[in-house]
Amino acid sequence: MRSIAVKLTLAFLLVGLTGAVLVAISVRYRTQREFDRLVVDQNQQALVANLTRYYQIYGTWSGVEAVFLPPVQDSSLPLHNPDPRWNIRRSLFVIANPDGTILFGGSPEIAGRKLKSRELNKGVALQVNGETVGWLIFVPTIDRWQPGTPEGNFLLNVSQATIFSALAATAIALVVGGVLAYSLTRSLRELTTATKELASGKLGYQVKVRSNDELGELATSFNQMSSELARSNELRRKMTADIAHDLRTPLSVIMGYTEALNDGKLDPSPEMFSVMHIEALHLSRLIEDLKTLSLADAGELPLMLQSIPPEVVIKRAADTYRVKADQKGITLQVAISPDLPEITVDVERMAQVLGNLIDNALRYTPSGGEIQLSVAATGEEVRLDVKDNGSGIPAEYLPYIFERTRLGDKARQQAEGETGLGLSIAKSLVEAQGGSITVQSEVGVGTTFSIHLPLKPEVS
Question: Is the model's pTM score more than 0.70?
Answer without folding.
Answer: no
